[in-house]
Amino acid sequence: MTSNDNTKVLFFDIDGTLITGDSRMIFPESAKEAIKRTREKGNLVFINSGRVKCNIDEFILSAGFDGLICGCGSNIILFDKKTGEKKELLHKECSKERCYDIALKCREYGMYSLFEYRDYTCIDKENILPEADGLIDRFKNSGYRFIDDIDDKDFRFDKFAGWYLDGSDIEGFKKYTSSEFTYIDREGNFFEMEPKGYSKATGIKFVLDYFNLPLHNAYVFGDGNNDLEMLNLVKNSIVPKAGSELALQAASYITDDVIDDGIYNAMKHFELI
């Protein structure tokens, strides 16, 4: 597909970038207005998140986007501007059998995980920590299916994330999964596993190739360690002041935090609105 050579493509992380990273999940009106205005100029706007599709809330989608890069680049969806229909361009899946084996190894290595599939979220009720309670409640109330038993016939995942403890065998777990997943340290005792060969950066390359647009037309907005690949890929990399230390180091432009109109201010700075 071809686009005007002047078309810019904006890629937004969600948590801590588009919305506040706390339980309030505030999506500032200024950010929504900036997204609306840049699309009116003919630019394209994509969510680029570690979240899988079913975990992207409707209050976020209602701001209006041209597509989604979900699950750390493992699932890419395009929205038709006229009809609103969704076209899936890419979905990298892990077999159910392999998913089950990895879940068992999570028990063995002390990795307490949330398993995320495109259409629903899973946990292992025999291997989870209280830190997950808030997210579990949100998933259960999302309207999508929630599975808590790895013996369920539909248990599977595209990617996963979770927590470890002092006694967890992180290195053993990384070695076991290294051929299929890339380990990301999300700070604290939280980790994320993205499919090998897929990331937010590969998702950006896929979309740019699809629209036949150059890399310098891309603008990325992120705040965390799972954004590093896309922040390092793209020249126009925007991070809020509250971003992680590594994300701030990778940024070409540091903006205000999301609650302080950081998205709007950065887009104004780059003349995207």
UniProtKB/TrEMBL annotation:
PROSITE patterns with a match to the protein in the record: COF_2
This protein's GO CC annotations: cytosol
Any one GO molecular function term: magnesium ion binding
Transmembrane segments: none
One Pfam family named in its UniProt record: Hydrolase_3
Name of this protein: Cof subfamily of IIB subfamily of haloacid dehalogenase superfamily/HAD-superfamily hydrolase, subfamily IIB
